[in-house]
């Protein structure tokens, strides 16, 4: 999923709603969001900072939604209902 696609999906949602992460379809849990980070934000000195496309297919501008605290059990129905 691209950032633009996620923004488009979120435009129809309540801006005051809590954002959570559904994890592990076969044993679902709900997590809060610890934050958002790019691959470039977490690179160490050994990484090649000049290459925008890395040899493993990843990119410096890849965006991660970072899993926070586990809150409760979730529902595996999230995967079927997910907007894409």
Question: How many DSSP helices?
Answer: 2
The separation of the N and C termini measures 8 Å
Rg over CA atoms, rounded to whole Å, is: 16 Å
Query: Averaging pLDDT over every residue, what do you get?
Result: 90
Unreliably modeled segments: none
User: What is the helix content?
Assistant: 10-25%
Going across the biggest sheet, name each strand in turn.
Answer: 1-2-3
What string, H for helix and E for strand, traces the elements in order? HEEEH
* Biggest sheet features: 3 strands, antiparallel
Count the beta strands.
3
User: How large a portion of the residues is in β-strands, by DSSP E?
Assistant: 25-35%
Structural class: alpha+beta
Shape: globular
Describe the structure.
The chain is an alpha+beta fold and 84 residues long. It has 2 helices and 3 strands. It has helices at residues 3-10, 77-81; strands spanning 20-23, 29-38, 63-73. Strand 1 and strand 2 form a beta hairpin.
Question: What are the SSEs and their pairings?
Answer:
Layout: H1 3-10, E1 20-23, E2 29-38, E3 63-73, H2 77-81
Antiparallel strand pairs: 1-2, 2-3
Q: What keywords describe this structure?
A:
globular; 84 residues; 30% strand; alpha+beta; single chain; three-stranded antiparallel beta sheet
Provide a compact summary of the structure:
This protein is α+β, with helices and mostly antiparallel strands and 84 residues long. Helices cover 15% and strands 30% of the residues. The chain contains 2 helices and 3 strands; from the N terminus they run αβββα.
């Amino acid at each position: 999923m691209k950032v633009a696609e996620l923004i488009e999906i979120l435009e129809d949602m309540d801006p005051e709603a809590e954002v959570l992460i559904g994890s592990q379809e076969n044993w679902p849990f709900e997590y809060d969001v610890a934050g958002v980070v790019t691959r470039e934000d977490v690179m160490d000195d050994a990484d090649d900072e000049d290459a925008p496309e890395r040899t493993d297919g990843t990119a410096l501008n890849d965006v991660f939604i970072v899993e926070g605290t586990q809150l409760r059990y979730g529902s595996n129905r999230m995967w079927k209902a997910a907007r894409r």
